[in-house]
Design brief:
The chain is α/β, with parallel strands linked by helices. The protein is built from ten helices and eight strands. Bound molecules: D-malate (MLT).
């Protein structure tokens, strides 16, 4: 995996004969890694350079202090764009990657040529959710990442995926197990302290695509519908048969929606 300094990322160069259309930045969810975006490398066929940052401590990410706020991760994404001399990009992410996308926008809206919010929400954690995060921090400290994986797995995928796509179940489990205990505990702190990004939504004026699995049990479609109402001119696509990890569960439908957005809306 290439890196600039401590920042690691996956990269797929733009393909095609013409001038590259631009850069697509995809930020991974919790507790996955940049490799969750393997199926989206194909979007390079549309002339887009695809970059997937590895958030601190996840996957192959450089060691060092883990992130403990969405602003830590957002700062790293901005540093990566600067290091790669990317002045403008379509920036998006899935779930926690969406929270980080909104944090990048809060700090530096000038980088946004477009935005992609997949299986995510704008609201902060509720008090009950914060209690759940604290229990998970204890769990990962006491019993490791495998225990967190076991706890999360049943909620992540649609029933259809769990039954019909054992290879996706295996792939997701492996992605989760590649995370370090410190990265997971740090990210849980980042998740439970993230600010409410709802007030930011009406200030988003770049082309925006909102995607969600129809059976997403963690960030259900109603939350995406709400973001769609608050972001003027945004496009909402609901992915059939997918749960919370729509990009991996139904990559063809996910990529079709994203490729159409990149070709016609950005
Ligand atoms: C994720 O997929 O990034 C997490 O489920 C986000 C969350 O727990 O809020």
């Amino acid at each position: 995996m290439p890196s600039v300094g401590r920042l690691h990322y996956l990269e797929e160069p733009a393909r095609g004969s013409g001038r590259p259309r631009g850069t697509l930045v995809l930020i991974h969810g919790f507790p996955f890694s940049a490799r969750m975006w393997e199926p989206q490398r194909a979007l390079a066929d549309g002339g887009w350079r695809v970059i997937a940052p590895e958030l601190r401590g996840f996957g192959d990410g450089a060691s060092g202090p883990p992130g403990t706020s969405v602003d830590d991760y957002a700062g790293d994404v901005i540093d990566l764009l600067d290091a790669l001399h990317v002045e403008e990009a379509v920036i998006g992410g899935l779930s926690m990657g969406g929270y980080v996308t909104l944090a990048v926008f809060r700090h530096a809206p000038r980088y946004f040529q477009g935005m992609v919010l997949a299986d995510t929400r704008s609201q902060a954690d509720t008090p009950e959710a914060v209690e759940g995060r604290k229990r998970m921090i204890q769990l990962v400290r006491d019993r490791g990442v495998a225990a967190v994986t076991d706890e999360m797995m049943p909620k992540l995928l649609s029933e259809a995926t769990a039954k019909e796509q054992p290879e996706v179940v295996k792939q997701l489990r492996a992605l989760m197990l590649s995370s370090s205990t410190d990265a997971v505990a740090g990210a849980l702190t980042a998740l439970m302290t993230r600010p409410d990004a709802t007030p930011v939504l009406p200030t988003i004026h770049c082309p925006t695509l909102i995607l969600v699995g129809e059976a997403d049990a963690i960030t259900p479609p109603a939350l995406s519908e709400e973001m769609h109402r608050r972001i003027a001119g945004s496009t909402l696509v609901i992915i059939p048969r997918a749960g919370h990890v729509a990009s991996l569960e139904q990559p063809t439908a996910f990529n079709q929606a994203l490729a159409g957005f990149l070709a016609h809306r950005v």
